[in-house]
Amino acid sequence: MRLFYFYVMQKSLYFLIALSLALFACNDTAPQNEASQQEQLSPLDSLNDAIVASPLKARLYLERGTIYLEEGKPGKALLDFDQAIEIDPNFDLAIFKKGELLYANTQYKEAMLEYQRCLEVNPENVDCLLKSAEMNIHLQQYGKAVDDINTALRIDDQLPFAYYMKGRIYKETGDSSLAVSSYQTAVEVDPSYYEAYIEAGLLYAAAGSDLALEYFNTAMDLKPRSVEAKYATAYYLQESFAKDTARVSDAKELYQEILEIDPNNAAAAFNQGFIELEYRMNYRKALEHFSLAVDLFPQYYQAYYNRGLCHESLDERNLALADYDKALSIEPTYTPAALGKGRILDGE
Questions:
Q1: What's the CA gap between 139 and 111, in Å, rounded?
Q2: How many angstroms separate the CA atoms of 306 and 274, rounded?
Q3: How far, in Å, CA of 34 to CA of 39, rounded?
Q4: Distance from C-alpha of 159 to C-alpha of 298, rounded to nearest angstrom
Q5: What is the rounded CA–CA span in Å between residue 165 and residue 126?
Q6: Rounded to the nearest 10 degrees, how much is the dihedral formed by the CA atoms of 183, 99, 50, 122?
Q7: How do the domains of the chain map onto residue ranges?
Q8: Which of 14, 65, 187, 271 gets the highest tally of CB atoms within 10 A of its CB?
Q9: Which pLDDT tens digit goes with each residue over 49-87?
């Protein structure tokens, strides 16, 4: 009996312990599940809840508007930026964000008003200063742009975009030397500033300086699949053929690389043809490239003209005449095609 009693009591004790552990586990997992549900809330859901709890916090609307922008909902973003500004009229970051949204929507006049309002509430907002400068460059109001840039640089002299814009101003006003200097400063501040390398390279290329290649090569290192950098390099090599006859081969290879990246690049096909026509006098090969160019861009009247030159050089007069006529049908004032047509007709 005692043994039976002990067995029953022990079994009951085990049961109570197991039940207690189970209840404890249930109580313990409830908060975890609740926390897990909160963790699963999206940033947007969290902001919505926060706005319901604190509807007069301007920063919450700015943050939600920024998320709406990232999700491709500019209309909702604009409403939130406006709400943030209505709550806090001196909220310069919200004003700037609204300006950026309007700028992206090509509402330039409205965007400029927002940048100006931003600077009224905070004259030292560097983002607004640089954007105002950029807008003034577009409007060719270079004096105002320089004032904005210099103000920004007095606040922070490590602004590569500011030096880049100075380069643009000097370039557009005809001072290539100062333009190059500004682009060089931009890449000193930010060695990964691709656009500044391209612009400096183009200026050196225009001056016939091989320093262009250094800048273009750095740009290609930064963006190995950049069609722009490859094209700028190839064109400079092609144009500086007199310095080194091997350059046209390098240029042609770069044009081929461009076509592998962008099979619809008619300009690359045209320049391959130009190299074969002008430098190698390989008219059959040039024909192939010019034909590809007009296939890719049917309005490419220069390519029709050059293909006509190839046919003329091969004494294929009727084909040459057809290409000259086609070029003139696209651009009736294109004198080289008119002269080519005249040569064919005079020779008949």
A1: 13
A2: 8
A3: 9
A4: 44
A5: 14
A6: 70
A7: 264-348
A8: 65
A9: 999 999 999 999 999 999 999 999 999 999 999 999 999
Query: What gap in Å lies between CA 287 and CA 274, rounded to an integer?
Result: 10
Model confidence pLDDT, tens digit, residues 166-205: 999 999 999 999 999 999 999 999 999 999 999 999 999 9
Burial of 322 (0-12, 13-18, 19+ CB in 10 A): middle
Cα 90 from Cα 120, distance rounded (Å): 9
Run of H or E including 114: helix 108-121
Contacts of 22 (CB under 8 A, 6+ apart): none
Classify 315 in phi/psi space as left (phi over 0), alpha (psi -120 to 50) or beta.
left
Sign of CA dihedral 256, 260, 262, 264: positive
- The dihedral of CA 299, 305, 308, 313: what is its sign? negative
* Measured distance CA(148)–CA(184) in Å, rounded: 20
| Domain at 264-348: CATH code | 1.25.40.10
How many secondary structure helices (H) and strands (E) does the chain include?
19, 0
Q: What's the one-letter identity of residue 250?
A: D
Q: Chain centroid to CA 329: how far?
A: 36
The burial of 57, by beta-carbon neighbours within 10 Å (0-12 exposed, 13-18 middle, 19 or more buried), is given as middle
Report in angstroms the alpha-carbon separations of 314 from 124, 308, 320.
68, 10, 9
pLDDT of residue 40: 72
Is the Cβ–Cβ distance between 80 and 97 less than 8 Å?
no
Which pLDDT belongs to residue 17?
A: 37
Regarding pTM above 0.70, the answer is yes
